[in-house]
Description:
Layout: E1 4-11, E2 15-17, H1 31-39, H2 46-52, E3 61-67, H3 68-71, E4 85-89, E5 100-103, H4 107-116, E6 121-126, H5 128-133, E7 140-146, E8 154-155, E9 167-173, E10 179-184
Parallel strand pairs: 1-6, 1-7, 3-4, 3-6, 4-5
Antiparallel strand pairs: 2-8, 7-10, 9-10
Amino acid sequence: MRKLTYFVATSLDGFIADPDGGFGDFLFEGDHMTALIEKFPDTLPAQGREALGIDVPNRNFDTVLMGRATYQVPDGLPSPYPHLRQYVVSRTITDTPDDVSVIRGDVLEEVRALKAEDGLGIWLCGGGKLAAAILPEIDDLYLKVHPIVLGQGIPLFDGAFPMTRFRHVASRPFTSGVVSMVYTRP
């Protein structure tokens, strides 16, 4: 069975984006980016991969799952991750490129079906509401904690959900101030 990993940047106060869905306050330069590119090149959008000359096979994920707001970030691409199978969870989106599928129904059922398939992992790349809705199926958390306090915005988990325990697996501080923290289900 494949794993679902919530791999996301977060502020010190637990926000994955500002109130408008932007993430321009997060750090995009520094040694944490070098590590990200080396270990997780499959998490870079097409324009980033192209600019950096990255053309390697996917190492960790072959599928990406996004909430509507994550998919429709300002200046976003209509197909941000063409090197992955792309799924957007939305009841309102009606028009996407052929390589972006829209999940409109029971998202937990759809995620369970994706996890039952063969392949690499599934990356939940954003969507606080989506993360809360599918928390029972999240196997791993990979948090890139940035040294910023936003004060408000889109929470890491946004909505009602039961208390859920994870076990700390690893931490890695970077000179940029970002700390990667990895958790898994016990």
